[in-house]
Input
Amino acid sequence: MGMTLLELEGVSKSYRRGSREQVALCDVSLSVSAGELLVIWGRRRSGRSTLLRVAAGAERPDAGVVCLEGRDLAEHSIARLGETIGYVQKTLGSPEGETVLEQVAMALLVRGVSPSRSRARTRAVLERVECADLVNARPGDLDSAERIRVAIARALASEPRLLVADEPTVGLDLCDRDPLLRLLRSLADDGIAVLMSAGESTAFLDADRALAISNGRLHGELQPESAQIFPLRAATSG
Output
C-alpha cells in the first residue's frame, strides 16, 4: 500500500430529531492509504453511512478534521472533490431518460470535458467494470448488479484516487456479490483507495482491513480470517 491519502481525526457528527439529538459519529479517527481496500462493518444506524458521507466530503463533521492528501477537506472545492474522490451514487437517472453512456459521460461533461473525450472515457470505465455491453441501455433496463457497476463506473469517470461506496453489495445475491467484491479488490490493486461499508462479514474477506462501527464509534480491527462465516446450506452427513 502507498502513502496515506485520506485521514479523519477526532470526527464527530450529530443530527437533530425533533427535540432529541442523535449522535451518528463520536470521535472517529482513521486513515486510508493509496491502493488500500478498507471496509467499515456495522449494523443499521451504526454510523457507517454517515462516516462514508463525511469521508467523501458529502457532509461536513461537527467536530474534527478530514484531510485529503494532507489538506483539510473543507478547503477543497466541490469540483476538486469530484475529481479526487469518486462517491458511488446508486441512484441513476430517470428510467426513461438518458442511456447508460450518457449517464456516465455527464459526470465529465459538467466538468468541461469535451463530448468526444467524455464518450471515450465512459466507454473505458464501462469496460473496466465489465459493462461495455450496456452503453445503449436505459437505467430502467438494468438489474441490481448492473446498476451498482454502472454507478461505480460513473464514480470512476473522473479518475479519482479514492472511491467511496456505501454498501455496494446490499441486495445482491451470491452470484453477483462475489464478482463485485473482486472488482473492488482489483481497483485497489490498481492503486485506487477504496473505502466501503458493509453489513455482512463476508463482504470484507478480501479487504486489507476491516473496522467495526457501532453507536458512532469505531472499534478494533476485524481480521478476515476470524470473520463469522455462515454456510450456504447445512452440512450433510454420510
The domain at 4-226 is CATH 3.40.50.300 (Rossmann fold). The longest strand covers residues 4-17.
